[in-house]
Amino acid sequence: MRKKKGHNGITDPTTTPSHHTEENVKATILHKEVGLVSGISLIVGTMIGSGIFISPKAVLLSTGAVGPCLCVWAACGVLATLGALCYAELGTMITKSGGEYPYLMEAFGPVVAYLYSWTTIIILKPSSFAIIALSFAEYASTPFYPGCTPPVVVTKCLATACIVMIVLVNCISVKLARNVQNFFTAAKLLIILVIVVAGIVLLAQGNTENLTDSFSGASTSFGSIGLAFYNGLWAYDGWNQLNFITEELKNPYRNLPLAIIIGIPLVSVCYVLVNVAYFSALTTTELLQSPAVAVTFGNRVLYPVSWIVPLFVVFSTFGAANGSCFTAGRLTYVAGREGHMVKLLSYISLKNYTPSPALIFNGHPNHDIYYASGHQHTNQLLQLCPVDLLRAHSSLPHSDALHPERAKEARQVPLASGGTSGIGVHLSGAGSDRGQARDGVSVLHHLHPERLALLLPVCAPQVRLATPGHETNHHAPPAPNGGCAS
Known about the structure:
By secondary structure, this protein is an all-alpha fold. The chain has two domains: 31-341, Amino acid/polyamine transporter I; 377-459, no CATH class. 60% of the residues lie in helices and 2% in strands. The protein is built from 19 helices and two strands. Strands 1-2 form a two-stranded antiparallel ribbon. The N and C termini lie far apart (75 Å).
């Protein structure tokens, strides 16, 4: 604090905050660094993964004909747009990050919001992140093993490297993560443009046999149509991602609905046009039998530069994984700030202004890959998590990231070991016995003290790290042998 002098030389008792104090207040919140273009890139880049390039045949298989298939793709786009517009209204009324979490908190109270946050943070977001990373690894490694399946250990190592790289990028800078998302979104739109233009050229040359009498043989079963919509809407998953970063949007009252209005119809048009391009070169039988439709299309139409299709599929999956990590970290951060997750996850890097602990928790490679690969301790984890969380939630104070004093208090929470399961660590207050989480909850994560020691000096310099009482070694089952058949 410093004093100001008046015009007559007398010291004015009114004090103004110093530059250091202003920086501390500034460090307790995430900055508004996402504009309209980045918001559109986040929506488009997260929605368009690898599905439209690899396996768009699920909708065709359920509808039974080309005409209904294209109609379902368009109708799913309309449904996704209507749902996103509802979320745009919610996002402009409740301008908090975290997606559905703050909306459930306002509508149904903390219990429902807590259950949603726990399920999403512990199960849904990490497993989704891991599945996308495994898809990236599979497509990236396949060219090096022609004619056979890549070894499982290679796929998992590449997936782990992908997760580590994406988490590192998101921890370093919001601007860097935003630029990465913009680049890979532009890349996937570029390959879509190439496929669409190639399809238009084929149609102009008279290759319209598959689009003639396109409703012949269509399925009229309600079950088949419902299944077609289910598969189509799955491809549109991600339309709500921008609501997870509302607090970081520049002018959210304008940019949130505008990004949704532009982004989701753009994805819908891309999906329909890409399917039309596929039908211009492939029959329905060829499309259903193809393991990777875009690759088959490229080999037939784009040769000798057909190699660009699998390359851009890799770009597409990487961009989708980056978008998933970016938004999932914000949900974890908000849940920690509200007291529904461990308080450590609400810390913000004082140097980079990113929710580094939340991002690392969501992107921990062992955590993610184990979920996607069926880790042997998953059932044990799910049984222990609710008990630890509910036990500690009754005494866990809600943190307020906007208040500098509360943020300072949050950074002084010491770290101690608790529990005997070996798959979680406990945050507890000073003087509490081991196994009693008085002021925290189980991280539900196999974080080792050495890894926490690397994180805490950056995000919470005053946190003390206690040595665990004991650890149980959990060895993952050996991976099955992969590679080429002899």
